[in-house]
Every structure is written in C-alpha cells, then in structure tokens.
Amino acid sequence: MDNDILTALIVGVPSIIAIATAAVLVGRRRSTDSDHEAATRSRPEGASSSTGTLVEPRPAEAEPEAPGAEVEELPDLSQAPPVETPAPATGRLARLRDRLSRSGSPLGARLLTVLSRDHLTEDDWDELEETLLLADVGAGPSGELIDALRTQVRVQGVREPAHVRAMLREQLLALVDPSLDRSLATAPTPRAAADGAAPAEGEPSTSPAVVLVVGVNGTGKTTTVGKLARVLVAEGRTVVLGAADTFRAAAADQLETWGSRVGVPTVRSERDGADPAAVAFDAVRTGVSRGVDVVLVDTAGRLQNKAGLMDELGKITRVITREAPLSEVLLVLDATTGQNGLNQARVFAEVAGVTGIVLTKLDGTAKGGIVIAVQRELGVPVKLVGLGEGPDDLAPFDPEAFVDGLLGD
C-alpha cells in the first residue's frame, strides 16, 4: 500500500507542477496582450506599437573628492542639470563672410579680375562662364548672369573697379534672390478638436511647430538638428527632439547628447530598427502634452530608391499630422557635393514636400554657387547654412552678407 502511494506521488507531482506552470504562463500572456492592446489603442493607424521613450537631459555627475580635500556640499542632482547657453544666432553669418573673403573665392575674385580688363574678348566671357560653372552656380543661372553682364558692359561701358563690383554684386544678389521668405515657422499653432471646436477644458490649446529634417546620411543631418535646437534655445524657445532615425545605431545617442547639452529632452526608441513613424508620433505627442514651442524630428538618411523613401517619409508625415500639423520640412545638403547633391535633393523634394534648405560645410568653400543652383532647382529658399564644426556654427542665411563675402567685402 505504501509503495502504491509513493508511486502515485512520484507520477502525479510533476504533472501538478506542469499544470500550475502552464496556468501562470497563460496568465502572463493574457496580461501582456492586454497591456499591448492598451498601449496601442490610442496610436493612429499606420504606426507600429514600438513606442518612443522620453529621455530627460542627463544631470551632470559630481566630481569625486580628492583624498584629504575639504568636504564641500554636493550638488542637488534632483534639480535640472547645468546646461550650456548657446550663442545668439544674430550676426553669425558675418563669420561666414570673413571666411569666404579669406578663401579667395573664385566666384568673386576671379570674376572681378576678368570684368576689370580694358577689353573683354569672347575668351574672357568663356572664362567667366567657366568660373561660374566651377563654383556650382549651374548652367542656367550662369548663362543668365553672363547675358546680364554683357548687356551692362556693352550699354554702360563699365570699367572702373568700383562700378564693376557694384554691377556684379547687383547681378549675384538677384540670382540669390533676397525676396524669398527665409524665416523658420517655429511658432505654436492654435489647436482644435477633430470637429473644429475649441479643445476641451484641461486639453492643450496649442500645438507645437513640428519641423521634420530629411537628407541622406553624411550631410551632417543629425548634427544639424542638434545645432538647430541650440539656435531655438538661444531664441528662448522650448524644444523636444525626436530621434526617428532608428536605423543608424549612433543617431539617437548623438541626438540625445546634443539635447542634454542645452537641457532639451529626446524621445527615442530603446531598440535599433524600430518604426520611425511611431517614434516621431510619440515625440510630437510629448511636445503637445508638455506645451513646448517646437518639436524637431530627425529622420533616417537612407536613399535606396524613390519608392522606399516615399513610403517611409509618407508614413511619418501621415502619422505626425494626426497629432499636429507639419510646420517645416528642412532638407540638409552638403555644399561640397555640388551637382551630386542636387540629384539627391530632387528625390527628397519630390517625396517630402521640402519647405527650406540647410546647406552644411559652406565655410570657406569655393563652391558657394550651390546656393543659387539649389534654390533654382528646387524652388525653395536656403534658410540655414553651416559655417564650421563648432556647436554654434549654424546661421540663418542672409543673401546680402553671403554675396558680400563672395566678393571679398
């Protein structure tokens, strides 16, 4: 009898344990499914369930005490960390003008040298056009400038250096087009309910300006987002960053570092390859709930084919605009890539609804004519230019200061 009981226990206990374990696993699975359903219920159709995580600016770490040093009161790390104060953006382009002047840009110096000759031959005019083309002005604008200069030289007989400089300045400025609106739309907009009525009590009354930043990798796109955050902070704006470039492992870390330096939080994914649209949506929703002025969204810079790019950027745009309207779509271009950069720009302009250009690596380059070419090609203005490697080397584009820099003024 005792043997029978012992046998039953040996056989039955494992079965009981297995049944209990299965019950626990089923319970956990149901709980997980329920949590997943709750987390995705409010997410718009088209965005994956991969949520972005809000990362606050990291507090500065306290320095370790030296042996025998006098004990000092440690900083309160529960408070906001000390942050950098970015330099004002006003006047930054003066530095670019100085750098262009020192670089001896052929677009200014060589043009003036040729135009000041006593008699201009056809070879001289060909030299002028070649100089413009080498500076990436583009065939169409170069031809227009040469025709205008020919007319003025023939009709007015311009020869004096001061008159030649004034004439060339006028024509270059016309090509750069100072009449274009180069302001950034960074003001919050009134928020309305889905039926057009005013928001309910307790809901946000405004939506932040949403700036989507696009461009291929290698142009300095993520760095530009970080520098633009500094420009906005210097202007007194509140900002949230969205790290929607989820395919490049270092992009989110890089953006988070930029944000921490000026006290700006970043919304990012906890894993590589997450849905960019979901991260962008969460960044905008965070901006709305916090009542910030601007949400800057960094996107992936892959340029595999137009169809894939269109699908990805189209999805991001659709998901974002269900929470807040897009204010700007900025295309970042490397000024040193010339006509190759224009080929990339055409694709992005077709699929992303670009509203402005950011030209990086423009400091001291002889390729300043790309400003003219890209505006003519895309029909949108250059709004910002990168002046160098420093954290505050991003400036609003000023046509007159730029042309004066090319001419060495």
TrEMBL record:
Superkingdom as given in the UniProt entry: Bacteria
Keywords in alphabetical order: Cell membrane, Cytoplasm, GTP-binding, Hydrolase, Membrane, Nucleotide-binding, Receptor, Transmembrane, Transmembrane helix
Binding site for GTP: 215-222, 298-302, 360-363
Transmembrane domains' residue ranges: 6-26
InterPro entries: AAA+_ATPase (IPR003593), P-loop_NTPase (IPR027417), Signal_recog_particl_SRP54_hlx (IPR013822), SR_rcpt_FtsY (IPR004390), SRP/SRP_N (IPR036225), SRP54_GTPase_dom (IPR000897), SRP54_N_sf (IPR042101)
Record's catalysed reaction(s): GTP + H2O = GDP + phosphate + H(+)
Keyword Cell membrane: yes
Region called Disordered, residue ranges: 30-91
Record's compositionally biased regions (Basic and acidic residues): 30-44
Lipid bilayer topology: Peripheral membrane protein
Entry-linked Pfam families: SRP54, SRP54_N
Domain SRP54-type proteins GTP-binding: 381-394
EC class: hydrolase
Matching Gene3D superfamilies: P-loop containing nucleotide triphosphate hydrolases (3.40.50.300), Signal recognition particle SRP54, nucleotide-binding domain (1.20.120.140)
Enzyme Commission identifier(s): 3.6.5.4
Subcellular localization(s) per the UniProt record: Cell membrane; Cytoplasm
Main subcellular localisation: membrane
UniProt cross-references to HAMAP family, sorted A to Z: FtsY
Quaternary context: Part of the signal recognition particle protein translocation system, which is composed of SRP and FtsY.
Family membership: Belongs to the GTP-binding SRP family. FtsY subfamily.
Function in brief: Involved in targeting and insertion of nascent membrane proteins into the cytoplasmic membrane. Acts as a receptor for the complex formed by the signal recognition particle (SRP) and the ribosome-nascent chain (RNC).
UniProt name for this protein: Signal recognition particle receptor FtsY
Organism this protein belongs to: Cellulomonas chengniuliangii
Gene: ftsY
